[in-house]
Amino acid sequence: MPANLAQRYPNTAREQRPDHAGLFLIVSTQHGYFTADQAAEYGISPTLLRHHLRAGRYRRIAWGLYRFRDFPDSPEDDLCAAWLAAGRDHAVVSHASALALLDLSDVIPDGYHLTLPRARRNVRVLLGTLLHTTARPFGADDVTERAGMRVTAPLRTILDAAAYGVGPEQIALAIEQAARRAQLDPVALNVVAATYSRRVAALIREATAAVVGQVK
């Protein structure tokens, strides 16, 4: 291939040699799922993708989202599918879904809670997705990783869940769990909570006051 074409189309060589092993390495971190864009990055053209769908190697989950047929199931599968469908580079698991994924409370999420930058709010989402938007960019301390997904860190998770209306007892439990694991500083939590609504600030203040005496 001419050098100038190789520079303009860097994936062309890979497209000529499908890298199934490379795709599977990505898939293995995403509960068996992959996107059409990820398939293309590993040389799986739309034609080849359709071939494997017909052969039963892959299953189509939603527009642009697929799964290896024989990949083992796990409790986080549906959440991961929702996260990938919304865009893995921008979507972050948040609110009650993050509380559950981080094992901070007993809350049962009422859907797949995801947060996206406000500029990217017009995305396709899976049924059951509860999409939140934020004008505040996620900082380095706002996001962590669990089960192969980007998820809000404990402090941000607790504040977002409190703002959304998760019950005070669940917020208190989440603060206690995170503090015991040294995943947050109650003082810092109160400082950031003061930038939220008065209701959230008061809820966090009362919850941390109860927790501080228990956590040593």
What does the model show?
- Strands 1-3-2 form a three-stranded antiparallel beta sheet, with helices on both faces. A three-stranded mixed beta sheet has the order 4-5-6.
- The chain is of the alpha+beta class.
- Residues 1-9 have low confidence and may be disordered.
- Strand 2 and strand 3 form a beta hairpin.
- The longest helix is centred in the last third of the chain and has 15 residues, at 198-212.
- The chain has helices at 3-8, 12-16, 20-27, 36-41, 46-55, 77-86, 95-101, 154-164, 168-180, 186-193, 198-212; strands at 33-35, 58-62, 65-68, 92-93, 112-117, 129-134, 143-146, 149-152.
- The chain has eleven helices and eight strands.
- The protein has two domains: 11-68, no CATH class; 82-212, no CATH class.
- Helix 8 (154-164) packs antiparallel against helix 9 (168-180) and helix 9 packs across helix 11.
**What is the SS-derived class?**
alpha+beta
What's the total helix number? Answer: 11
Residues in β-strands, percent:
15-25%
Q: Describe the sheet with the most strands.
A: 3 strands, antiparallel
Mean pLDDT: 90
Helix-residue proportion? 40-55%
Distance between the termini: 65 Å
Strand elements, count: 8
C-alpha Rg (nearest Å): 21 Å
Query: What's the number of domains?
Result: 2
